[in-house]
Specification:
Layout (H helix, E strand, L loop, with lengths): L3 E7 L3 H14 L13 E3 L5 E3 L5 H7 L4 E5 L5 E9 L2 E7 L5 H17 L11 E5 L1
Antiparallel strand pairs: 1-6, 1-7, 2-3, 4-5, 5-6
Length: 134
Amino acid sequence: MAKPVCCVLIPETLEQAFPLVVALLEGLGVSLAHPDNSRITTWTEEGDQKEIVGTDVVGQVVSGAISNVQFWKTGSEDVFVAWKENSGGCRFSFYLDGVDAVFAAALTSKLAETVLETFRFQYGEGAALTIEFE
């Protein structure tokens, strides 16, 4: 089964864009910390889940120490988020296969709202928001 992925370009530096993503997800009731054990997790290139030690998650993101993180809706529902920084800003990929369709639609709606209300005049040509199936 193909995985739905919502990709959004945020025309900011990673240091500015990542806290925006965190705030957007927290506004939808999703947290960086797992609700059952308070752990913050990332995935390695080898496919191993790893706990992020320390409280400076933004510092680890900006330094390039991590390039993805899981956000948790419940103990069994999550949104995996990965990012890449480029000259136009930061492209975030939100993997929606860990949440139900209603929440996935709410998240993509919030991302579309952010693109159209906050950054609309900062984009050049090209895609700012897409939904892909991998």
